[in-house]
Amino acid sequence: MKRTLLLLTSVSLITAVSAQNVLITENFDSYADGAAISVSDPVNWAIWLPGGADQVVSTAQAHSGANSMGCVSTVAAGGPGDLLLLLGDQTVGSYILSWWMYIPTGKGGYFNIQHTEDVTTPSFAAEVIFADGGTIGGMANNVAIAGTYAQDTWFQVNLFIDLDNVTASFLIDLTPVATWPFNTETDGAVGPNQLGAIDFYSYGGGAPTLGEFYIDDVSYIHLSTIGVEETARAESFSVYPVPSSNSLTIANNGSNAAAQWRLLDMSGREVMTSTALVMPGSQTVADISGLATGTYTMELTHGGMRERHAVVRN
User: Fold this and answer.
1) What pTM was computed for the model?
2) Per residue, what are the HEC states of the chain?
């Protein structure tokens, strides 16, 4: 696994949106078939303890290259594979986490989001079950998750976690499935506003369906990187709705300065820019209906500071 921490002393971090902090990328192609994931990379992966077991590299399916991570259960109740992707126990900032997933017909899949890396006492932010037949179930904030996915083909899972605004969104191929306040447990109880880990558990929804799914091309990005010239971070603006099909509202909620904004794609290329300043206490609307579907960064500059928000065009 490659973990890339972009240094704050880097000129590109100060001046370019390509300085988004890419925390993790992984395509599993640097490992041998059958290699144990947490043994291969103990920095970013850990077995769920007590009672869990490693997941392994597989050549049975791959979204890119030759390898993926295979999560295959041997009993309907799930397991033995039970592996955590460690996300750093984050408490501030906005994060995009995505991976590609493949589930064969007759099988199912599962993951959950943990508020903490240490799961000795688990803190479930959400549970997601991919049932045989292409339906999605689960729970977040005591609300049932419901959606669809395609079997026998690769599809993308997208998670957008905005800890500063205490919100989370789950999408499949950029189609919204669920949005909920992130400082909650799956039963609706209050939980920590903290991003700890993703648990990939070999489970397919229960008898008679066994779990068999494959994970590839994992990406974990921090969108709240601060340049050296930015002496403070103030979430003075709201950008909504996320995701959106047609338009974004940019509201100046707390800055005493007028702001300029620009929208950049994941390569750092500017695709839109402001035509008028967002004055204190005002808001403006940006038409994004002409953009391709995907993930973007809204960058606002105001009073010598810079603020970034995740944007999704669906």
Assistant:
1) 0.74
2) CECCCCCCCCHHHHHCHHHCEEEEEECCCCCCCCCEHHHHCCCCEEECCCCCECCEEECCCCCCCCCEEEEECCCCCCCCEEEEEEEEEECCCEEEEEEEEECCCCCEEEEEEECCCCCCCCCEEEEEEECCCCEEEEEECCEECCEECCCCCCEEEEEEEECCCCEEEEEECCEEEEEEECCECCCCCECCCCEEEEEEECCCCECCECEEEEEEEEEEEECCCCCCCCCCCCCCEEEECCCECCEEEEEECCCCCCEEEEEEECCCCEEEECCCCECCCCEEEEECCCCCCEEEEEEEEECCEEEEEEEEEC
